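ok so dumb question maybe but i'm new to this and my supervisor (M.) told me to 'just get the structure for Outer membrane chaperone Skp' and walked off. so i did the thing. is this what she meant?? sequence i used:
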Amino acid sequence: MKSRDFMKNIFKYSSVLTVALLFFVSCNQQGTSETAEDKESESTTSDVIASDLKVGYVNSDTLTKNYKFYQDVLEELESERTRLERQLESRAQGLQKEFEDYQKSAQNLTMGQARNIEENLQRKQQNLMMQRENFAQTLRKTEADKTKEVVDKINEFIESYSKENGYHIILKYESVWYSDERMNITNDVVEGLNASYDAEKNAPEEAESTSEQDSIK
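this is what came out, is it supposed to look like this??
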């Protein structure tokens, strides 16, 4: 599985990073037209609202390249794919050897014996094909589960980061035509995600160490 395809899946489902802003300004008045004073008041209100917004953006390529959990997931998926492929290859080689052995001894077999061996080889071949499909389904499910796990972690952190730092909107950089570099919070997000991931990985070790110390006492 290519990392690029996996990255597309991740950000296909990531809604938090692609928030769109839409303002509706309506004025229902009785009469023929708005007064200049009304228009000025409306414009001032919109300017105030816009000036109060705090917007940031995240570069998804930089994020996935430097997010430790994402990189570990890619490595885990590649390792699982390799393991399953080796399993299938081993069975296929075993079946090929059985077929070659059958061909070598076919002239010494009765018709009944040959038919039984052929039927057995055919069943094994069908089982191998079924196993290959089952492995493919397993990989697809694992990929989907891991994709969701990565997206959920990013979404949860972005939401928490937004609240803690007063952001109203956090966008995905690739969806923006132009933005001031000062709005780039990618490094902060990556550092926060990695710190959270490191804490999760170290938690079991710390718990085990504490348990051992308690048992010694």
